[in-house]
Amino acid sequence: MLLQENVSLAPLTTFRLGGPARFFVEAKSSGEAQEAVLFAQSRNLPLFVLGGGSNLVVADSGWPGLVLKVAIPGIERRPGNDHEGRVLFDVGAGESWDRFVSHAVRAKCAGVECLSGIPGSVGGTPVQNVGAYGQEVSQTIESVEVFDRKDGRVRELCRDACSFAYRSSIFNTIERGRFIILRVTYALTPGGEPHLEYADLKRHFEGRETRPDLAETREAVRHIRARKGMLIVAGDPDCQSAGSFFKNPVLSEAQHEALQRRAVAKGFALPSYPAPISPSLEKNRKVSAAWLVEKSGFARGYGFGHVGISSKHALAIVNRGGATAAEVLSLKDQIQQRVEEIWAVRLEPEPVMVGF
Ligand SMILES: Cc1cc2nc3c(=O)[nH]c(=O)nc-3n(C[C@H](O)[C@H](O)[C@H](O)COP(=O)(O)OP(=O)(O)OC[C@H]3O[C@@H](n4cnc5c(N)ncnc54)[C@H](O)[C@@H]3O)c2cc1C
């Protein structure tokens, strides 16, 4: 295990801001990750687990303890199929997520093609149950291998044990900080059709006579993402961000009706989608956070010193160069306050705040 001191975290994040880590270890194996945890325990240091740094705002003061970057590599396809005819892939938590998606698509295995172009690591995907264009990783995760900091053991959590829901799992709620994700097993469908339910994707392929294959779907998703500044493209100032800064609010039927009345009174049609997570909540609706932000006076391209809103997507706060975490949080506060004043809805940030 190579222990480093005072390592700058900004270059290890997509936002490219924030202070240093007091101690830093990059673990390429489960053993190294466990050694790093023991080191933090022995010195009573707070531990932060870093993946690809694509969903973080790191405080300007940095992290006072140990940052453990999980860099365990490897994509392995198990021989044969499971009882449902699916193929299992065991993937190291440190693999690039998009590299795995590309690998799966080339192997003609369906299930993650709509999640093309999402930055970050494989180990980051179960944490907030990454989702886009009609797919979520919880639909294909078979199990998650973790190091349990509570009892110092490596164990396998099945999908149900992870309690996946919209942008959440045990890893970012009730068991936050307990588990270090070492490996994720995905069950994909060999020869399966691409999932083409999302409106943007349907529009992309409108007028086509033949059904697009997985590779074409992947390219379409990456193309749509690039247009929205949601693909990391070197030199594009709109992608120095943490992606969507706010979650889409999920409202009860009554809350949704109240919001709809406000929208109608202002002459707007409120875009919303069904968001059932269980049969008892089938009337829940997911409302577009981007719409609420834009309709509160924060248009695409809005500027506020070193920080601003992406010129391609109202939901992304961007570092226009030289921004501080304090400036990002100040813009976040302004947006939250304004949206709440106008729409009586509290937007919840999606990125993880580190060191505040
Ligand atoms: C341009 C852009 C577009 C994006 N688009 C989407 C999108 O469409 N959908 C979506 O859901 N997200 C999106 N995101 C957010 C982000 O890419 C995902 O949440 C991603 O899965 C985060 O993974 P990461 O490895 O970068 O995690 P990090 O940002 O490094 O960490 C995020 C959280 O996960 C924890 N974590 C990471 N790795 C591990 C591990 N091995 N063990 C335990 N905990 C761990 C960290 O402690 C932290 O709490 C986007 C971000 C950007 C910048």
Task: Describe the 3D structure.
This protein has 356 residues and is of the alpha+beta class. It contains seven helices and 20 strands. Strands 6, 7, 8, 11, 12 and 13 form a six-stranded antiparallel β-sheet that branches. Strand 9 and strand 10 form a beta hairpin. The chain is globular. It starts with a strand and ends with a strand.
End-to-end C-alpha gap: 28 Å
Main sheet attributes: strand count, strand direction, barrel closure: 6 strands, antiparallel
- Find the count of extended strands (DSSP E, 2+ residues): 20
**Residues in helices, as a percent range:** 10-25%
**Quaternary structure state of the chains depicted:** single chain
How does the helix and strand content classify structurally? alpha+beta
Describe the SSE topology.
Blueprint: E1 3-8, E2 20-27, H1 30-43, E3 47-50, E4 56-58, E5 63-70, E6 75-77, E7 87-92, H2 97-106, E8 109-110, E9 131-132, E10 135-136, E11 141-148, E12 153-158, E13 179-190, H3 199-204, H4 214-227, E14 250-251, H5 253-265, E15 272-274, E16 285-287, H6 289-294, E17 303-304, E18 307-309, E19 317-319, H7 325-343, E20 352-354
Parallel strand pairs: 2-5, 3-5, 4-20
Antiparallel strand pairs: 1-2, 6-7, 7-13, 8-13, 9-10, 11-12, 11-13, 14-16, 15-16, 17-18, 18-19
Bound molecules: flavin-adenine dinucleotide.
Flavin-adenine dinucleotide is lined by residues 14, 49-56, 70, 93, 118-121, 123-125, 127-128, 130-132, 171, 180-181, 230, 232, 239, 241-243, 352.
